[in-house]
Amino acid sequence: METERDLDHESPNDGAATGGPKEPERARVPADRANVLIVEDERGARAALARLLQLENYAVMTAEGPDQAQSHLEDGVDLVLSDLRMGPTSGIDLLRIWKQRRPDVPFILMTAHGDITSAVEAMKLGAEDYLTKPVNPDELLLLIKRALTARGKDAQIAQLSERLDSKLGLEKLIGQSKPMQDVFARLRRAARSESTILVLGESGTGKELLAEALHQNSPRKNGPFIAVNMAAVPETLVESELFGHVKGAFTGATATRIGRFQAANGGTIFIDEIGDFAHESQAKLLRVLESRTITPVGANNEIEVDARVVAATARNLEQLVAAGKFRDDLYYRLSVVTIPLPPLRERPEDIPLLVRHFLDQHARASGRPPHVIDPQLMRFLETFEWPGNVRQLANALESMVVMAEGQTLTLEDLPTTVARQARSAEDGMRIPPGATIEELERAAVAQALKRCNGNRTRTAKSLGISVRTLQRKLNSWGFADSDPLPRPHPASAVSST
C-alpha cells in the first residue's frame, strides 16, 4: 500500500515484527480513545496505517489476517479497518463473522480498483464504507471519524430507549421528543387516579399501547387488562359484548356469558373506537360509568363492577356531538382526563429511536444481527409524513427486513406503497408556465416548512441544504421568525394541491 505518511519500520505492536507468529495484542485502551483494529497481510502497509492512526490519537491493534483478527472479537474494538484480499480467507468472510458477533462495530474495507464489485457486495452485507488503494490518508481519517460518530449516536439512542423503558416500565411506547415527553407526563399523573380517561389520536399512533401503559403504571396493574374494539362489534351485539347475557336472552344465546366489564373487574377495560359506539346503547354505557353496575342482556338484577375505563378514538367526538351522533353527557363523562397522542409527523426526532426498536425486535425474533439503515434511507424515513403513523413505519420496516437481500437497508428496499405515497407528495406542487426559479424555490421551501410544521432543522434536512442556507434564503425573502411560513411573492403563480 502506498501512502504519503509511510514509515521505514514496523509498528512495535505488530505481530509480524519478529518474523514469526505472535499472540495478537490485547486491548488496553483509555476510555476517551477509540480502539481501531487494522487487518492487513502486508507488513509495511499495516505499519503505515498503524502509525497514521496513532498520530490521530486512536488506540490501534493489528492482525495479519482474518484468522488472527477473530481473536480480537472480545477486545472492545470500536472499528475494523480490513483489506479485502488476504489469502484463502477474505475481508468479506471476516465481515460476515464480525457482523454476526459484533453487529454494532463499524467495518471499513480497503480494496484494489479491480475489486469494486466485491466492495459493493460488502456494503450490502453491512460494511460502512470502502476505500480503493492507494489509500488517501485524509479520506481514510474522514471515513473513520464519520463511522465512529454514527456509532456513538446509535449508542445514545439505545441508552435513551433503555432509560425510558426502566423509568416508565414501558417496552413499546417509545419517544424522546417534546410532544411525547408531554404524553408521558400526563400518563404518569393520570395513571394514579381512578378517573375515566379519553385517549385521542390518529389511527396507528399507539392508543392501545398508551392504554396498556396507563394500566401497568396504575394501582390496578395486577388486575386484568381487557380491550374491545367497538368498530369490530356489530350494533346488535354491543350490549352483550360489554355487559354479557343470560341463557335464552336472544336467539343463539345458548349459555350465560359474562361481558367485558365483568372480565375486567379489578382491572382496566379499554374501549377502542368509542366514536363508533352504537347510539342506541350510549345511554346504558353512561349509566354503567355513573353507577358502576351492569345489567346483562335478559337479566333483571344489577351486578356491581369495579373496572377503570380508558376509551380511545381517532374521530372528532365534539363534531359527532354537534351532529347528534354522540351523546354530549357521555362525551363529558368519558373526557374527565384527555390524553392526545401526536401523529408521527409531529415528532420526527423519535423516528431513529423507533427504527432501532423495530429492527432490534426483528433481529431478536429471527436470531440474526439487526439490519443497518443506509443514511439516505434514514433521511427519507425522518422526513416522510407517515400518514399511517407508527404502525405504518413498523410495517414498512418489517417488509424491508423480509425482502432485503443484504444486511443494509436502502431506498431501493422501500415498500411500493410508501414509495408511491412519497411520489404523490412530490407531485403535489403545480408548476405553471413562466414561473421563475425564485418563485419555484420559495414555493418549495414553503411547502417543506408546512410539511415539517415549521421545524427549520427538519425542513433543511428534507431539502438537502444546511440550516444556515435555509435561514439565509428566508432572510432574503423578508421572512420573520414569528411568521409560520414565507410570505408568498405577489407575482408568484406557483401553488400546491
Task: State which percent range the strand residues make up.
Answer: 5-15%
Unreliable stretches: 1-31, 162-170, 486-497
Rough outline: elongated
Sheet having the most strands = 5 strands, parallel
The total count of strands amounts to 18
Q: Percent helix among the residues? A: 40-55%
Biggest sheet, spatial arrangement of strands: 2-1-3-4-5
Count of helix runs: 19
Based on secondary structure, the structural category is: alpha/beta
Mean pLDDT: 81
User: In angstroms, what separates the terminal alpha carbons?
Assistant: 57 Å
Q: Radius of gyration, Cα only, in angstroms?
A: 30 Å
Can you walk through the features of this model?
This protein has 497 residues and is of the alpha/beta class. Helix content is 42%, strand content 13%. It has a five-stranded parallel beta sheet, with helices on both faces. The chain has a five-stranded parallel beta sheet with strand order 7-10-13-6-14. It has a two-stranded antiparallel sheet with strand order 8-9. α13 packs across α15, α14 crosses α18 and α17 packs across α18. The N terminus and C terminus are likely disordered.
Short description, anyone?
The chain is α/β, with parallel strands linked by helices and 497 residues long.
